[in-house]
What we know:
Elements: H1 4-7, H2 17-25, E1 34-38, H3 45-54, E2 58-63, H4 66-78, E3 85-88, H5 94-108, E4 113-116, H6 133-160, E5 163-168, H7 181-200, E6 206-213, H8 219-224, H9 236-246, E7 258-261
Parallel strand pairs: 1-2, 1-4, 2-3, 4-5, 5-6, 6-7
Amino acid sequence: xxxxxxxxxxxxxxxxxxxxxxxxxxxxxxxxxxxxxxxxxxxxxxxxxxxxxxxxxxxxxxxxxxxxxxxxxxxxxxxxxxxxxxxxxxxxxxxxxxxxxxxxxxxxxxxxxxxxxxxxxxxxxxxxxxxxxxxxxxxxxxxxxxxxxxxxxxxxxxxxxxxxxxxxxxxxxxxxxxxxxxxxxxxxxxxxxxxxxxxxxxxxxxxxxxxxxxxxxxxxxxxxxxxxxxxxxxxxxxxxxxxxxxxxxxxxxxxxxxxxxxxxx
Length: 265
């Protein structure tokens, strides 16, 4: 039986006018928005991508594995939603990201929402036994990606006087467990980065918030921890709904927040 995070892709759904009307009544109609989901084919990013597509948004995703992007296109087709635009780019490369953002704005005319789901985990080892290479890896994926993206996206949002940014941090930003020092440090730094950015953009109509998941119920995490109680883990689609709310007009008063999405963990 497919894990909950994958079952959705097997469901036959119809993307129709009734869906759009219901979403609009709930303040979740993004039909006029251009949304960038970085890491938009991963365990969480895939669900965020599909959730925005269901609301009628134009969605651009970054990916590193072509087969994962193909899976997202297939999932979108199964529910009758438009396919996302996919770009293979290293989001820790400042030059490549600047070029990519400029091309995205030129193509679509605006960029309204950035959801950064790029990240990585390394843990289970005492600090003094960690390979030094893990230090750079954690900072690149969990901190630098958010910095590079914000640096390229915010000027466009200031120009528009409109925008939303949601960055995925982690419960580990506060809960500094043994065996995960570099991961916790990089996620804590990512949270501080977004907090300061939120203060920077107060003069503009831009909302910046962070999401703090615990262990997300993905196929990869189930494989890594087969003996865990999966029912306690937050589901990717549940977190996606929180992200959509944060990117809606109804959530304009939420700014500079760190939203816990721990499930029952």
